[in-house]
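step=encode ok
step=design start
structure_in=
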């Protein structure tokens, strides 16, 4: 059986806070780690989409990985983002990153060069054969430009014991259902969209890797915990109170929205790295209203 329980539920897709001059703000990063752990998240995901990873230099990524491992100190599992559009570069990351404190890697479908389904299979086969840790696949066609089909996901899941799950952000619930119906025992199916998490869990999915858990961890975890207990009516009711705020997190793109919300909450500064820019004044005001209206502090 593949590992399941430790990486089920909700993982917080961690942001990367920056100082006003664009350096990594490690003090704020430590504060964020404590905030989401205190908020009840099941695990933390580092160096994913929400971390602005494409703007981070490789030495910065390695330093963040080490800092997060040390600061988490075993309190919750850690999943490390290790991906790219060059297979050989992903293998370089696997060699160079200190992964000793991580429980799994999250590896995105190669972006921009639009590989075929066979190319995706061969890429992840190579990653799986070289990874010292279990691998969670990450399908996000809206950003990568290519959709990994359910058939390719299932082929990988069946062929490699250390490919233990997928973060599915295709937005296609029928594709997710095909994976759920045919997956090997213990293979995790995680939503990549906060708004689909409860629906996916109601169909038998295992949870979500969440943006919203950065900003509103206690409230979001209440939804996920209700779903995990099988009380889906309560889970949907709890999520309804968050729906407007979750929508605002993505109104100007991710991670612009979540960093804007966290700035309004006083957790971090507003700085983004170009080509991303900070949220508009209108978005900041929207979060002030929503935080007060739904008591999201």
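sequence_out=
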């Amino acid at each position: 059986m593949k590992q399941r329980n430790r990486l089920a539920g909700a993982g917080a897709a961690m942001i990367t806070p920056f100082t006003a001059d664009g350096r990594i703000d490690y003090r704020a990063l430590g504060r964020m780690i404590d905030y989401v752990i205190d908020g009840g998240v099941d695990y933390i995901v580092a160096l994913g989409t929400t971390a602005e990873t494409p703007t981070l230099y490789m030495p910065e990524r390695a330093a963040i990985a080490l800092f997060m491992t040390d600061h988490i100190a075993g309190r919750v599992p850690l999943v490390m983002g290790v991906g790219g559009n060059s297979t050989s570069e992903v293998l370089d990351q696997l060699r160079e990153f200190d992964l000793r404190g991580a429980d799994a890697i999250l590896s995105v479908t190669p972006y921009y060069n639009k590989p075929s389904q066979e190319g995706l299979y061969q890429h992840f086969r190579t990653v799986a054969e070289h990874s010292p840790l279990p691998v969670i696949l990450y399908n996000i066609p809206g950003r990568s430009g290519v959709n990994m089909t359910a058939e390719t996901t299932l082929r990988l899941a069946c062929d490699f014991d250390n490919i233990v799950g997928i973060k599915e952000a295709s937005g296609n619930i029928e594709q997710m259902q095909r994976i759920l119906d045919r997956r090997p025992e213990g293979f995790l199916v995680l939503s990549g969209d906060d708004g689909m998490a409860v629906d996916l869990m109601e169909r038998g999915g295992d949870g979500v890797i969440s943006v919203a858990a950065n900003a509103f961890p206690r409230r979001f975890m209440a939804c996920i915990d209700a779903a995990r207990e099988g009380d889906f009516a309560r889970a949907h009711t709890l999520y309804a109170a968050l729906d407007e705020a979750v929508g605002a997190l993505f109104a100007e793109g991710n991670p612009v929205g979540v960093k804007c919300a966290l700035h309004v909450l006083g957790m971090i500064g507003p700085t983004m790295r170009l080509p991303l820019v900070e949220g508009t004044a209108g978005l900041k005001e929207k979060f002030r209203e929503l935080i007060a209206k739904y008591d999201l502090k």
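step=design ok
step=annotate ok -> Strands lie at 9-13, 43-46, 78-81, 104-108, 135-139, 163-168, 188-191, 207-210.
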